Amino acid sequence: GHGAGDYEMAPGFSLRGPQGRSAVGYLTHLEALRFCAVGDFLKKPRAPLWVVASSSHFTVLFATDLTAVQASPAELHLERARRAFARAAGA
User: What is the pTM of this model?
Assistant: First the structure.
């Protein structure tokens, strides 16, 4: 079966993102161009460390302040609202 966020590439072959926050994050400019979607578990890793992909190279971005990956009260409130709307919509 396929869960929410799964992408079926071919019969019997699907892509799925991480099931929880990853240790290292991933960001790409291709998302802004709508070529792919990076989920929150990769955008908000457990450690303040991201691999940033461009069309020609990768860059490593990091923060020395661990609070960089902590959600603010406003972000937590927004996430609770998103989940509530998704449940109401049957997603």
Answer: 0.69
How far apart, in Å, are the Cα atoms of 75 and each of 25, 46, 62?
18, 16, 21
R_g over Cα of the chain: 15
Alpha carbons 15 and 32: distance in angstroms, whole number = 20
Cβ atoms of residues 38 and 31 within 8 Å: yes
1-19 residue pLDDT tens: 445 567 778 888 887 888 8
- Exposure string for 11-38, b = 16+ CB within 10 A, e = fewer: eeeeeebeeeebeebbbbeeeeeeeeee
Rounded CA separation 9/36 (Å):
13
Q: Which residues pair with 59 in a beta bridge?
A: 52
Q: Which region, left, alpha or beta, applies to residue 60 given φ > 0 means left and ψ of -120 to 50 means alpha?
A: beta
